[in-house]
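Suppose a colleague, Dr. K., hands you the sequence of a protein chain of 119 amino acids and asks what its three-dimensional shape might be. Before reaching for any lab equipment, you can write down a predicted structure in token form. Begin with the sequence itself:
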Amino acid sequence: MTDRTGSTDRAKDTALDLDHLGRMTHGDRGLEREVLELFDRQAAMMADRLRGATAQVALSCAHTLQGSARGIGAWRLARAAEQVERVAAAEAPDIAAVVAQLLVAVDEARSAIARRLVG
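The predicted structure, expressed as tokens, is then:
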């Protein structure tokens, strides 16, 4: 089954949806590399800011990550960021747990990007 982005359910469960990324970069591998390198740097900066962040900072970082992750097809990361946004906006006490899940998703996406850039 595909959704409005053209991604399958299976692709939504991967760290990086290469079909979506290919559509967004029009199959241009040079552009893909540039986009992935930019995302990787941004994700590293946001992950650093998230560690020990207040709810407001976590909300801001998660919002940034969510939009960027959707752009490249990092669906798990986008969902984890969305969860942080919800919890932070509600000022729920379990913010640290969802931030930890987001950091795992960031690491997974960055690992997938590293593999893609080498390959």
